């Protein structure tokens, strides 16, 4: 089972090495790593090209895009793996065995998707955990409570994207939430929870970078809930309040 990892970059020089290194350190042998770059003007491309020369499974595409979701969509269309996952440029896989565990989970559960836990870490000291997003086994009723798996931990069979589409670019910040609702409401699909930390994310993502983005994110979350006929304001309230528990590691 080949796993395609997609990383979207734009002026990501500060963190891209640790991102790629976390994939290189995996003990799972069947990996394709696609770097989808938005024509960076810093040292990102030089760093990626240097690593690409040393590792044949790293592939680089650098061209203008319409933002991160457009870049991820490009990666999906170029992916050749049976399973697709994302490691964003500021993120890194939590351990060298993560992809082996994910592959084993796919095989043992016969699932369409596998997801796990996420840690938000300090931007400078990545050993310092700020938030811990502990997930749980999925049941359909969770969606109305605003539940979602941490998107960076979600690995899906490539066929899911072929059958259910890619990220909707009408969403600027919440296209991942819209996509998750779109597939998790499908009762014929099976999702399996792997109770381990899959991804470490440096704190400071786009959705909470400013008050303006928080407001946009909330409006888009509400739109996603309505579009997918999952719930309304009460679901959005559940979703936001539930995040408070992430500051207390389980």
Describe the secondary-structure layout.
Elements: E1 3-9, H1 13-24, E2 31-37, H2 44-54, E3 58-62, H3 68-78, E4 83-86, E5 91-93, H4 98-109, E6 113-121, E7 129-133, E8 155-157, H5 158-164, H6 175-184, E9 191-202, H7 211-227, H8 233-242
Helix pairs in contact: 1-2, 6-7
Characterization of this structure:
Strands 1, 2, 3, 4, 5, 6, 7, 8 and 9 form a nine-stranded mixed beta sheet that branches. The protein has one domain: Spore Coat Polysaccharide Biosynthesis Protein SpsA, Chain A (Alpha-Beta Complex), CATH 3.90.550.10. The radius of gyration is 17 Å and the shape is globular. It is of the alpha/beta class. The protein is built from eight helices and nine strands.
Short structural description:
The protein has 250 residues and is α/β, with parallel strands linked by helices. It has helices spanning 13-24, 44-54, 68-78, 98-109, 158-164, 175-184, 211-227, 233-242; strands at residues 3-9, 31-37, 58-62, 83-86, 91-93, 113-121, 129-133, 155-157, 191-202. The radius of gyration is 17 Å and the shape is globular.
């Amino acid at each position: 089972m080949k796993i395609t990892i997609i990383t979207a970059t734009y002026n990501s020089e500060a963190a891209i090495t640790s991102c790629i290194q976390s994939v290189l350190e995996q003990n799972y042998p069947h990996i394709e790593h696609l770097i989808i770059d938005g024509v960076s003007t810093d040292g990102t491309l030089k760093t990626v090209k240097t690593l690409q020369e040393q590792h044949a499974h790293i592939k680089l595409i650098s061209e203008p895009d319409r933002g991160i979701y457009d870049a991820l969509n490009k990666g999906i269309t170029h992916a050749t793996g049976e399973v697709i996952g994302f490691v964003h440029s500021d993120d890194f896989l939590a351990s060298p065995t993560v992809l082996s565990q994910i592959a084993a989970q796919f095989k043992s559960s016969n699932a369409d998707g596998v997801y796990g836990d996420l840690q938000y870490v300090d931007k400078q000291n990545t050993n310092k955990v700020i938030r811990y997003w502990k997930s749980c086994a999925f049941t359909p009723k969770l969606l109305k409570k605003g539940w979602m798996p941490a998107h960076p931990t979600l690995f899906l069979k490539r066929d899911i994207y072929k059958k259910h589409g890619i990220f909707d670019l009408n969403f600027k910040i919440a296209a991942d939430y819209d996509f998750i609702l779109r597939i998790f409401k499908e009762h014929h699909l099976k999702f399996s929870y792997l109770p381990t930390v899959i991804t470490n994310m440096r704190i400071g993502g786009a959705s909470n970078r400013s008050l303006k983005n928080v407001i946009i994110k909330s409006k888009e979350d509400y739109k996603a809930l309505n579009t997918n006929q999952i719930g309304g304001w009460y679901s959005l309230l559940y979703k936001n309040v539930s995040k408070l528990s992430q500051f207390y590691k389980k």
